Amino acid sequence: MPRKKINIGLVFGGRSGEHEVSLLSAKSIFEALDKDKYNVFLIGIDKMGHWLLGNPANYLLNSTNPKLIALNKSSSTGIVPVNKAETSEIISIESGRELGKIDVFFPIIHGTFGEDGTIQGMFEMINAAYVGAGVTGSALGMDKDFQKKLLREAGLSVADSMTIKKSAYGKDTIGKIEKKFSYPVFVKPANLGSSVGIHKVHDRQELAGSIKDAFRYDTKIMVEEYIKGREIECSVLGNDNPIASVPGEVQPHHEFYSYEAKYIDENGAGLIIPAKLPKNTIEKIQEAAKKTFVSLDCAGFARVDFFVRDDREIFVNEINTLPGFTKISMFPKLFAASGISYQELLDRLINLALKKKQEKDKLKRSYSP
Q1: Among 231, 229, 224, which residue's Cα sits nearest to residue 183?
Q2: Which of 74, 181, 187, 264 is the most buried (most CB within 10 A)?
Q3: Cβ atoms of 352 and 238 closer than 8 Å
Q4: How many C-alpha atoms does 73 have within 13 Å on its Cβ side?
Q5: CA separation for the pair 357, 291 (Å, rounded)
Q6: CATH class of the domain at 140-157+228-359
Q7: For residue 364, what pLDDT is reported?
Q8: CA 164/CA 79 separation, integer angstroms
Q9: What's the rounded Cα separation, in Å, for the pair 198 and 216?
């Protein structure tokens, strides 16, 4: 008797500055998922927040161009995910008809409304299994301000920083920054990823413009000290007892690992996998990556980014709880170098999601004294 296929709801796009990156990740995942094991429902969310069930034959436009890639809305059906009779389903908005039961949602929406706990909260409300961190881990992974505070509490080294809310930004802010830091500094939105809105700032004139740009993406921004060191990344996989990949090094050909260097310019950065580091430093990075993952209550997968100074001193830069997942992205490449293929990664992530759901289903949801 053939094994029953698992129904996967691959969710991508979204109302984020990283919308196009998400489409690229989804394309790679869809192509790699074993269709003998999985039925895949392609659920795209447009930039207005509308949920659309796509046709596998043409769900993306300009799919090979990272600058022009887009959802093909003309061949999509408006849907809403619901909980019905203890199962997760997707329902047509127009007809109210069930279009499919979903065993596991696989959100690959990078950034706001996908990586920050919001969509995870919706999955929790409909009692769905889903890949990746839960509400708390996602929110902490996205908010670099709170993330740094918790990592310091856990005994991990992070760059010195200053958090600025838009409502508190005034004429004296520049002076306060210059009193605390020497140039260069980094300016970034507190809640975003893929280097969107991030600037390396060299002087006061650049600082004002960079702050203005960062506030375009978030009402809270961060100014961070510049740490001159090697940029090292390490992937993590698991739930309560995660494993870490070999670390890899990013050598940007731009001034830093910008959005353009990551996704637009094919020669934007050199990736050295595994990173050439002393064995004890590699072990320290792997342990710090796992500790970061557990300290922030993550699950499923993540990529932890570091600065390494003098090949010994390690600083956690940030965690990405829904890292880029194209076939050339660092997360899968690091695990490939560690002996876990792209396709096996997907299988493991789906199994981890199902296991997490099974554990939650054992919890009591009512109280009788």
Answers
A1: 224
A2: 187
A3: yes
A4: 10
A5: 23
A6: alpha beta
A7: 83
A8: 39
A9: 11
